[in-house]
Amino acid sequence: MVVELVQGVVSSVSENVSIDGAGTVPNARPIEVTDNSRRVRVKFSNVLAYQVTDESYGAAETGENEEVDGRILNRHRGSAYLQYVLQSTLVKHLVDNPVQHYSLNLADDIIDVITTNGPTVELI
Q1: Domain that residue 13 falls in
Q2: pTM of this prediction?
Q3: Which end of the chain is flanked by fewer CB atoms within 10 Å, N or C?
């Protein structure tokens, strides 16, 4: 599984944004992808399960959380999602290697990955 990420940059130009029925947000600055945006490729091998959740509906994970490469990539120990996968699939019966839970916490999505190998991160 390969995920390519592009850094959003806060615009230097602000604008007023009207929200129907809720008023106006003054001096909002859009997030833009520019030629200066950094691009990163995160590769997971031997993926056993994954899920994508809209960040608006994500809940804090249980267990320990370790930032792997900044605040975006995290490794979880004793997480609810890992326990769910182990209890509702055949992973614990068919996989001999230790199973790990990683997450990518993005602007719009949270991607949870269950794998036996840590990811590689490459600047592209």
Answers
A1: 2-123
A2: 0.80
A3: C
